[in-house]
Amino acid sequence: MLHKIGYIYAEFNGIYGYRRITDELNNQCNTQYNYKRVYRLTRIVGLKAVIRRKRPQYQRSTPEITAENILNRKFTADKLNEKWLTDITEFKYGANEKLYLSAILDLKDKGIVSFAIGKRNDNRLVFDTFDLAVAKYTDAHPLFHSDRGFQYTSRQFKSRLDNAGMTQSMSRVGRCIDNGPMEGFWGILKCEMYYLNKFEDYDSLATSIEHYIQFYNFERRQKKLDHLAPMTYRQLLENAA
Predict the structure, then answer these.
(1) Is-contact 129 115, C-beta < 8 A?
(2) CATH no. for residue 160?
(3) 72 inside domain
(4) pTM to 2 decimals?
(5) Count of other CB atoms within 10 angstroms of residue 120
């Protein structure tokens, strides 16, 4: 359901609030979800109508490298490893301490290609995630889409992309809907695992995240994948190739 909410939000360029999203969701899926349920889920994922959203004040930094939004919200792929999306999200534990998760998602099978967990939101976290993905799929040369975070706009990261033969794509400034499926995954993970528990230490939170991603990749069925889990769907496509 969260995936569908994210797609509807992106489809209408972020101008729909939770009431219109509910109406569109019920119309497209022949369901009867109420406004309160969709409101709760959109708050979890952080989706708000852009026409009513106040612009947050960010500390500006000068990017070394920028790229066009080549993905352009085309959130489908014809084959595996054609389009990869990436992002970083944070989790709080204990006395307001923070854990950061970086991940890469494949748009064809909706699976998590690789991820890295750390206590700092830095270049190493992103580079480790990328290096794991490249080592796993050495022949992959996808379109690689991210936001304009400082890690992705660094010359070091661009060099990694070039060496791997990947084309860089970036969301527009302040437009999280340009990376909708990745935002949708964060919402699913937090709704189905993180918000259901209270974590007092780093290790227990990191372990729970690892277990959930394993579950998501290998057991959690998705309607758009013929009711298969991402890695099962991927294996079928690889065997048919």
Answers:
(1) yes
(2) 3.30.420.10
(3) no
(4) 0.78
(5) 10
Q: For the chain, what percentages of helix, strand and coil (3-state, to nearest 5) are there?
A: 45, 15, 40
Summarised one tens digit per residue, pLDDT across range 15-57 is 677 787 888 888 888 888 888 888 887 776 667 665 544 444 4
Residue 88 structure tokens: 């970083």
What pLDDT shows up at residue 41? 77
Q: Please check whether residues 17 and 87 belong to one and the same domain.
A: no
Starting at the edge strand that comes first in sequence, how are the strands of the sheet with 112-118 ordered? 112-118, 97-106, 83-93, 143-146, 167-170
| DSSP three-state, residue 113 | strand
Write out the residue range of the structural domain in which residue 31 sits: 2-52
Q: How many residues does the chain have?
A: 241
pLDDT of residue 117: 98
Specify whether 230 is located in the same domain as 126: yes
